[in-house]
Amino acid sequence: PRITYTVHADSRIARIDPRLYGSFVEHLGRAVYTGIYEPGHPEADEQGFRQDVLELVKDIGVTTVRYPGGNFVSGFNWRDGIGPKESRPVRLDYAWISKETNQFGIDEFANWSQKAGVTPMIAVNLGTGTPQEAGYFLEYCNHPSGTALSDLRAAHGRAAPYDFKLWCLGNEMDGPWQTGQLSAEDYMKKARETAKIMRWIDPEISLVACGSSHSAMPTFPEWDRIVLEGLYEHIDYISCHQYYENEGNPKDFLASFLNMDNFIETITSTINYAKAKTRSDREVMISFDEWNVWYLKTDPWDAVFKDKAKRFQPAPPLLEDHYSFLDALVIGGLLCTLVNHADRVKMASLAQLVNVIAPIFTQPGGDVIRQTIFWPFQMVATYGQGYALRSFSRCPTFETRYGDARLVQSALVYNEERQQIVLFALNCDFSQQVTLALDLQGFGVTRPRTQVLLQHQDLNARNTFDQPDNVSPRTLSLQAEPGNHHDVVLPPLSWNMLLID
Ligand code: AHR
């Protein structure tokens, strides 16, 4: 097929918030221990942080990292993870039926974030935790000095406040799997009282309320409406979480972006409704702070519950999905959706970053590799900066469980500083190449220079420690004439990035 693809320089959706390219490190499996932190590893620095992992964290271009959970946070006492390491308590982690040694806590995370060059996004415990404990946690982190907790931080080696500005009011509190699950009303009240305390301590923080855990929750979107109406004046963001997996029909799986589109649009409408109902001038935005491919149904992590020998191990290998080429294509499609909603989605977190459903994968004591999904994320995080633009095309569609999906899922970004137009495009056609006939209006003379392509003949191809570059991008230099009309060829089933200047 040949598709005319028109875009005008003035058709701006919004400036992309760099925090759209965030990720997530939870105390879960080997995300922390033998992931980002492994004292004794040949690559560990003096603080025990793996430098080989840090390098890839910088390379992938993540901007924020959410911590310490996830489900873990809802049973976590932040005080267990501070002070001299030898006196920290070993605890049972109810969320993942693991043993938490607390050798890594908030002070270590602050140091690691600084080395990684990422902005921390911290979650408080609204499961077993109280509003006041959330306040104490914030006081420990952000209050300058002269109180028991701020002086305790100084005694632990950090005199200046951490000044963390992004805080999540709990995690997935609608889920029966959550320690201390709440009804929407009860969560709303608890989060409201927590938000009041937290803002009294530091009025400059931004707060994220828990939205539905996913769009198939029986309480969706009523949960979101109740939370938004009750918290509208207290929060800055509502969270969305959604994971996708191949349930046997690759076409449906490829169209995951359509489900994410609908989810964002429903939550946007719910926010607008709550804004009108509360007569507010405030703009609450979306934090899509958990999204990824996760083989939850086919590789049940909860086997640890049933197997006595596997219960309560420290840093057990959990949720270690080995991603395929097809998974990487799906991630590309989802990234386009996030960029295309840059007006309402201001933050997002690929869940997660290392080992646990992650683009970066380590061997304890050994190597680190980039999984297939590393690549689309890295391309969009690195080049998807500037304004998201709206494009117009009469694109053929294909039938999926989510409805009719565009054959080519795409996003277009204009970077003013680099004077560069960047097209991201996923060709969902299994057998045919698609030619995009670009009609670029209002940009002056343009010339496509480079096409970066992720393509593999085997949908199941994976990167392994023996073949770490099996699925990796290819860069083509283009010999295009300067002008406003350019034909771009997207091979069958491929993820593409086109740089035009
Ligand atoms: O990212 C894995 C888990 O998925 C998180 O702990 C939880 O928030 C979600 O259910």
From TrEMBL:
SUPFAM superfamilies: (Trans)glycosidases (SSF51445), Glycosyl hydrolase domain (SSF51011). InterPro entries: Alpha-L-AF_C, ASD1_cat, GH, Glyco_hydro_b. This is non-reducing end alpha-L-arabinofuranosidase. Belongs to the glycosyl hydrolase 51 family. One of its GO terms (molecular function) is alpha-L-arabinofuranosidase activity. Its EC number is 3.2.1.55. Keywords: Carbohydrate metabolism, Glycosidase, Hydrolase. It comes from the Bacteria. It catalyses: Hydrolysis of terminal non-reducing alpha-L-arabinofuranoside residues in alpha-L-arabinosides. It holds the Pfam family Alpha-L-AF_C. It is an enzyme of class 3 (hydrolase). GO terms for biological process: L-arabinose metabolic process; polysaccharide catabolic process. Residues 289-494 form the Alpha-L-arabinofuranosidase C-terminal domain. Homohexamer; trimer of dimers. It comes from Biostraticola tofi. SMART domains: Alpha-L-AF_C.
